Amino acid sequence: MADNTGIRLLGFKGFKASERFLCALEDEIWVARYDPETEQTDIPVHRPEKILSGATMLAELAQPSRVTVVSAHAGYLFNGRRLGFSGDGDQAPVLTVDNLGSFTLGATSMLLIDACCSPALAAALAPHARHGSLIVSLAHEPDEDPFTYGKDSITAIGSVIRELCHAATPDLSPEAAARAVRLTNIQICARNDAERKRGVGNKKAMRPRLHMREC
Length: 215
What we know:
This protein is α/β, with parallel strands linked by helices. The chain is 36% helix and 22% strand.
């Protein structure tokens, strides 16, 4: 399988918060990995801007990459009957997990899910993952709401990408991806501990850790 794309950033067109987040990640990767000698980045990044349907999102998720980030609304759609990703608005595009068929994820190292209900989505996508790859989602506890807020996307999902960009040489292997997730969780735990020590009791001030599923 051709594996020319380092990081793919996927989101439905029209979901403004997702578009801004993915665009910011693309800019960070470009700046962090820019080589002035070649005037290129040594981690190729691709962010398609016209994902307008569930079928297009499914096709993009199947495209080869080392790391794929999918950022979208998600939940139990159609009166709570079907789990899936969606765009924004009344006519939003939808991709439900019961429509995946024999589909295989293109990410060879890691799929990062930036969405609500991400643990359930990770479990549903795991049978479609490549052997040896990771699926990473926010680790919502059973007694916590399953929502993902923008601050959590930046703190957790964004930090994993930044950790991957810190290496002296490009490394998007599953081992490097796992190390980036572990380092991000260490940072999140340290921040949460610091908040508790200064007397912050509001659970919303805490940041959720990431759960790493090995496929």
